[in-house]
Model the fold of this input.
Amino acid sequence: MDISKLRIDSFKKIAYVNFEDKLCDEFDEYEVIIYKINVLEDIPAFVDYVNARKMSVENRLVMVYEKGGKTVNKNSIIKPFKENIYLDFVLKAPMLCSLDKKLSAFVLKKENTC
Done:
């Protein structure tokens, strides 16, 4: 997984969540959360996870998913955010990017972090 495309090089406090091969780091304040979406139920779990943490003002939230999924795909993942079901989450550049042959990601930012 090539995270250089995510433009998060300047951030230091990066947590990986819901990945089988990575342990989740805990911080007092998070700058980046990279969350693996495996099933649609992971989307509200992602939102709950983010809302339960203190985020820095300049934060990035990355939802990673496997390409080619029938139920978990770019449209099903981004739909609740575009429909404002989850408030305070906005798309950030690069918004949608390919991380490798198997994985893609959406990049968001959590507004109103205080």
Summary: Residues 3-110 form one domain. The first helix runs from residue 42 to 51. The mean pLDDT is 90.
